[in-house]
Amino acid sequence: MANVTVYNMEGNEVGTMELNDAVFGVEINEHLVHLAVVRQLANKRQGTQKAKTRSEVSGGGRKPWRQKGTGHARQGSIRAPQWTGGGIVFAPVPRDYEVKMNKKERRAALRSALTAKVQDSKLVVVDSLALAEIKTKEMQKVLTNLKAEKALVVTADDNKNVILSARNIADVQTATPNTINVYDVMAHNTLVVTKDAVAAIEEVYA
Fold first, then answer.
1. In degrees to the nearest 10, what's the CA dihedral of 107, 108, 112, 115?
2. DSSP alpha helices (H): ranges in 44-89?
3. 3-state SS, residue 159
4. Rounded CA gap, 109 and 105, in Å?
5. Can you tell me whether residue 9 is helix, strand or coil?
6. Which of 40, 9, 48, 71 is nearest to 195 (CA)?
7. Dihedral sign, CA of 166, 167, 172, 176?
8. Angstrom distance (rounded) from CA 63 to CA 66
9. CA distances from 133 to 153, 160, 162, 195 (A)
10. SS3 letters for 169-188?
11. What is the biggest distance separating any 2 CA atoms in the chain, rounded to whole angstroms?
12. Helix, strand or coil, per DSSP, at residue 33
């Protein structure tokens, strides 16, 4: 099992903690991590884009001029794609961008992402995160003490003071053990996790 240092909110070492290798010490599967990221980004898309083809644009039922003798190129409709106000060639239509991934694959991808953070020394374990009030300045001070930039902060529960204090800090995001995902873990440089959150993650994903 990997041992990591546990810090307090002042950035001082207060002990060590053993991580469960079933979650934080697996063999990294880059392919599954890639699939999980692609799936999450694809599933965010609404797929509601729509443009009209030449058969759907109103007007243009009459041939604009006779076929020959005018000096113009022959035309059959003023709603053909080359005309202003005409239809769009191969117009986009509403579609579902959903990418499916098995539950076991999703869990394996998250374990790989968490393991990668441990191997890169980008996992910071904090004994607790307790802010007396909602104050962005105090949360920024904690992250500075922990030397955590572009951080994903994971708490064991919906810690209102932490969530509201962190939401206005650029490149900082908060999550709970049941809402973390591969994209958020990989998109942030540092993963800041409380001891209680580590235990919760190991309980869910081990």
1. 70
2. none
3. coil
4. 6
5. coil
6. 9
7. positive
8. 7
9. 17, 9, 9, 21
10. CCCCEEECCCCCCHHHHHHC
11. 92
12. helix
3-state SS class at 51: coil
Q: Look-up: residue for tokens 């409709």? A: 77
Nearest to 154 by CA among 141, 171, 172: 172
Torsion sign (Cα): 69, 70, 71, 77: negative
**Alpha helix (H) residue ranges in the chain:** 21-24, 30-43, 103-119, 136-145, 160-166, 182-187, 195-205
Residues in the chain: 206
pLDDT at 1 over 70: no
Mean pLDDT of all residues belonging to the chain: 92
What is the pTM for the complete model shown? 0.82
| Residue 144, token pair as written in the block | 């500075």
Write out pLDDT tens, residues 164-206.
999 999 999 999 999 999 999 999 999 999 999 999 999 988 8
Q: Which residues touch 80 (CB under 8 Å, ≥6 apart)? A: 54, 60, 86, 87
